[in-house]
Design goal:
This protein is an alpha+beta fold and 140 residues long. The strands form 2 sheets. The chain has a 5-stranded antiparallel beta sheet with strand order 1-8-3-5-6, with helices on one face. Strands 2-7-4 form a 3-stranded antiparallel beta sheet. A hairpin with a 2-residue loop joins strand 5 and strand 6.
């Protein structure tokens, strides 16, 4: 069993950014040289998330609209009363979506559907942040 780990480091452009990291993850899987196994991706931070989506203009508009319906910015969150930082909705959204993705690796490549891209979601209210997505490839 072999293990290969790397991180994808970047600075975000602020709340609402949806970044396609599929090619970055594929590059790490290729570099790992593992033919059969899994690739696990995890974002460090409580106000960011990873998911799989078709990275196209319609969904890039629909997904933030969905988040606003599910966890609106303009309602009161207990987190605001505790920390007064205005990002209670960011924490709730990140918790709902989750911090990680695991995909199978077969014949040295990540197995995904044609329209499945791995995306990073910046959910915090700050203008920009340094972020890290930790990628681990495990297999043979």
């Amino acid at each position: 069993m072999a293990v290969h780990a790397e991180s994808i480091l970047f600075r975000t452009n602020g709340e609402g950014e949806i970044r396609d990291i599929t090619k970055d993850v594929e590059r790490i899987v290729d570099k790992a040289g593992i033919r059969t196994g899994i690739v696990s991706c995890s974002v460090a931070g409580a106000t960011a998330a990873l998911t799989v989506i078709e990275y196209e203009p319609g969904l890039l508009e629909d997904f933030p609209d969905l988040l606003e319906r599910v966890a609106p910015k303009d309602i009161e969150y207990a987190h605001h009363r505790t920390w007064n930082d205005g990002n209670g909705h960011s924490h709730v959204r990140a918790s709902l979506i989750g911090p990680d993705i695991t995909m199978p690796v077969r014949k040295g490549s990540m197995v995904r559907g044609t329209w499945q891209q791995i995306v990073f979601l910046e959910l915090d209210v700050r203008e920009s942040r340094d972020r890290a997505v930790h990628v681990t490839v495990i297999g043979e």
